[in-house]
Design goal:
2 domains; alpha+beta; globular; paralog of FGE (formylglycine-generating enzyme); 623 residues; 6-stranded antiparallel β-sheet; 4-stranded antiparallel β-sheet; Transferase(Phosphotransferase), domain 1
Length: 623
């Protein structure tokens, strides 16, 4: 639909499109005030049953007045189109922010208190509406999802505002469900998956389906009520702490969020009951009680004990690490013509955790209890599994971009000595050997090496286990400290940022991506749902795999926003700033957009940061 005005409103831009119609940012022609217009679909407006419900019940929706519910000002008709006029939840640029986009921008920086703040606001809005009636029945939302939870700035933190309240009831459960299914089907058709925007839309629709309670998915009944909101609330809570939907055999929050202070298992178990009668009524009270409850496993309430047994069974069937049965292959160089420099591997190092002597020894007095003596971790002799390396010849290369972000400017020449680089990122089966040798996930300075809950490596009954099918995938969840420690263990090092970019571009000038002037999803793993096994995509001209996508890769350098200004003046083997706050990451990852795949794109984070997109590969000098 293309129009410039509707009734007394000038349409400025489209804000969204959903099962219940299009949403526009508009301005009233006379009072010059912005509003949001939700234009209902034409087929609904021609439905006599819908119009009857709409006229009889819409006044109850318009009467809602709560800080966490979008305020409706008017419901009217113009040019044969019915539309709802409400407050616009937009920023100073007229852009809307929903919870899905907000979580993607914030990543893992949100705390448990941030999750609770979001849930308290949603619970408050739902409890407020559940205490009211519409058409003689308790009011409920019926279609909670990430995209209709809008985010507005507040004096402290953010304010969550729910939109589309009770429209499911007006439209009818069956009709609303059918429309959602139609949109999912349309979004997943091959011709509609040709753009990144279409792919994102399809994910939104599929995810919206996951928020529906089991009884709402029954095509033969109008069976939703306020207990459907409780199910969606539990789904939202789980998504906040786990960043995935609770589908099938899912991990309990105590597994994916073990450092949590509250009993999230209890909350999820209560809300995700198959029987609606067992779900909580007052969600604010349930949230408060669950956060105060002792942290014990509550799986039996939801029969999740069966899920736990299935997960343990899967883990036992997964790859188990037995160092005594593995043989370490000798390092191999990528085939090159003629005599070629070889990587110079230094003697391996492994930094062991050390403990000070017992400080109580200065008190020479008899003790009636045994003293605690920390156990020293014993070094295990385990051979690494080395990666084939490609040699990048020394010479003068270009790095940076004059068309990219400001921290990529200016484009300038650098001179590098010859070096070797692993042809693919370090894999889970390689890194698990290092963890076995270390005997833990800390280095000698007590820095985290890896966070197992963000990785595909787990501990079960004292054994390190790689999830089934992920042995050849790049290791993730590794800190910069862990990457450096691993490199030292195998006698290598991390590449400098200059080395990494030169290898990514194959030393060629004026190409955007490691694949050339363009990049397609058939050439690299990006804008996808998970990592892929290394060497699943073609190499670049240097014979290197995954220089674009799959995982961000740690580099040796500190990051500085304006470092390239100095690098242009000191072009000989640049090593980055002498100090800083962040370390450099390069290459984009499995969930990055196309722009992140550029050879010159720079990313950075705290060296102790770890998540499911951070990995690394090793480099070495040559002789």
């Amino acid at each position: 639909m293309h129009m410039e005005n509707l009734g007394d409103y000038n349409l400025l831009r489209q804000l969204g499109l959903g099962a219940f119609g299009q949403v526009y940012l508009a301005e009233h022609r006379f009072i010059k005030r912005p509003f949001a217009l939700k234009i209902l679909p034409e087929d609904l407006c021609s439905d006599a049953a819908f119009m009857r419900r709409f006229e009889e019940q819409v006044h109850a929706i318009a009467a809602l007045d709560h800080p966490n519910i979008v305020k409706i000002h008017n419901i009217t008709c113009a040019d044969g189109r019915f539309f709802i006029v409400s407050d616009p939840i937009v920023d100073s640029l007229g852009e809307t922010m929903n919870l899905d986009r907000y979580l993607n921008l914030k990543g893992r920086s949100l705390s448990e208190e941030d999750y609770l703040s979001i849930l308290r606001q949603v619970a408050s809005a739902l409890d407020y509406c559940h205490g009211r009636t519409i058409g003689g029945m308790p009011m409920f939302h019926g279609s909670i999802k990430l995209t209709n939870l809008l985010v507005a700035p507040a004096e402290e933190g953010i304010r969550i505002v729910l939109s589309d309240f009770a429209l499911t009831r007006l439209i009818g459960e069956g009709v609303a469900f059918s429309r959602l299914c139609e949109q999912v089907a349309m979004a997943l058709m091959p011709q509609n998956l040709s753009t990144e925007k279409a792919v994102q839309s399809s994910r939104n629709y599929v995810r919206a389906f996951g928020f529906l309670a089991p009884e709402q998915k029954m095509l033969d009944a109008e069976s939703g009520d306020l207990k459907a909101d409780a199910y969606a609330f539990g789904t939202l809570a789980y998504y906040l702490v786990a960043r995935k939907m609770p589908d099938g055999c899912f991990d309990l929050p105590s597994r994916v969020f073990p450092e949590a202070q509250g009993n999230w298992d209890y909350l999820i178990s209560r809300c995700l009951q198959m029987n609606p009668a067992l779900r909580p009524g007052m969600l604010s009270h349930a949230l408060s009680e669950c956060m105060k409850a002792p942290k014990v496993q509550m799986g039996d309430m939801l029969s999740l004990s069966e899920i736990e047994r299935k997960l343990d069974s899967v883990l036992q069937m997964s790859f188990e690490f037995h160092p005594e049965k593995e043989s370490a292959p000798a390092p191999v160089l990528a085939p090159v013509s003629g005599e070629s420099p070889k990587p110079m591997l230094r003697p391996g190092e492994i930094a062991r955790p050390e403990f000070d002597s017992d400080p109580a020894e200065i008190f020479h007095r008899d003790m009636h209890v045994s003293q605690y003596v920390p156990k020293k971790v014993e070094l295990k002799e385990i051979d690494p599994m080395l990666t084939e390396m490609a040699v990048i010849p020394g010479g003068t290369y270009q790095r940076g971009s004059n068309e990219g972000a400001r921290d990529e400017m200016p484009r300038h020449p650098i001179t590098l000595s010859s070096f070797a680089l692993d042809i693919h990122p370090v894999t889970n089966e390689q890194f698990v050997r290092f963890l076995q040798a270390m005997g833990g996930e800390k280095d000698s300075n007590n820095n985290d090496i890896i966070r197992l809950r963000d990785s595909r490596i787990k501990r079960s009954t004292g054994k390190l286990i790689i999830e089934s099918g992920y042995a050849k995938h790049p290791v993730v969840g590794v800190t910069w400290y862990g990457a450096v420690a691993y490199a030292k263990w195998i006698g290598k090092r991390l590449p400098t940022e200059a080395e990494w970019e030169t290898a990514a571009s194959s030393g060629r000038e004026n190409i955007l991506f490691p694949t050339g002037h363009e990049i397609e999803r058939a050439q690299a793993n990006f804008f996808s749902s998970d990592t892929t096994a290394v060497m699943s995509y073609p190499t670049n001209e240097m014979g290197l795999y995954d220089m674009a996508g799959n995982v961000y890769e740690w580099c040796q350098d500190w990051y500085a926003y304006n470092y390239y200004d100095a690098s242009a003046l000191e072009p000989e083997n640049p090593l980055g700033p002498p100090q800083g706050v962040y370390r450099v990451l390069r290459g984009g990852c499995w969930k990055s957009l196309k722009d992140d795949m550029r050879c010159s794109h720079r990313h950075r984070n705290n060296p102790g940061a770890m998540n499911g997109t951070y990995g690394f590969r090793c480099a070495a000098d040559v002789q």
